[in-house]
Amino acid sequence: MALPDVDQVSALIRAVAKTEILPWFRNLDASAIREKTGPLDLVTLADEAAERALTPALADLLPGSRVVGEEAASEDERVFDHLDGDAPVWIIDPVDGTMNFAQGRPLFAVIVALVHRGETIAGWIHDPMDGRMATAVKGHGAWLDGRRARVAESVPLSAMVGALSTRFCGEAMAAQLEERASGLGERANLSSAAQEYLRLLEGRAHYALYHRLMPWDHAAGVLMHAEAGGHAALSDGSPYRPTLRTGSLLAAPDAESWRALRDHLFG
């Protein structure tokens, strides 16, 4: 399958962020924000506008492709069925970190992934606030603002900085993780998977742990992390795939660090 031009996709994402997202930042009233499944699961007019703009534009870049957008899937779960087909699929998170965005915190980003037959083959993460753009194509490395991205060097567990989420994993596991995380270094949960993957790509964090695996949150980031030299897998050691929606996903600088973290956190 011929890939669309990576820079052309980047330019499209930048343009949509500029016109459909940034004008709403710190300019949302109550009518522009609503709950989807609860008070911690929000959607804003910016999310919806950005997804509406990206969906047809990305599909036009790759004739025959399908689109799985977060907001479309929240309205109709049958959208997920596209991931099981043979056609290439664009996965869109129009505003990752919507809670931050709605609260006026500059910790959000646009995530786009391209998946074919259950495998992520390209990804983009764009921070509209500072202009950072991370890209990756499977087998060709990860890039951040035109420079090759590399994950952090491995360090002892007590010095590892990262994001460790205890949401969506149940009370017993959450209590265990909180207790065992005390043996690690600084925690920096940013309430945005995109921002946390950017920290991994910049070498500013060593690990990240998640328990809800929506494809728009992780398909691009896991590919980028791997292409930057990192190792990620489910807690049982099985590989991540963008068709997954449950499980515990752990990312670390390398396989040895991953095993040490997994054993420390999960026993």
UniProtKB/TrEMBL annotation:
Gene Ontology MF: a single term: metal ion binding
Domain of life of the native organism: Bacteria
Keyword vocabulary terms for this entry: Magnesium, Metal-binding
Keyword DNA-binding in record: no
A Pfam family that the UniProt record links to this protein: Inositol_P
Annotated positions binding Mg(2+) 2: 93
Cofactor(s) needed by this chain: Mg(2+)
Binding site for Mg(2+) 1: 70, 96, 217
GO biological process: inositol metabolic process; signal transduction
Family note: Belongs to the inositol monophosphatase superfamily.
Protein name in UniProt: Inositol monophosphatase
Source organism per UniProt: Azospirillum cavernae
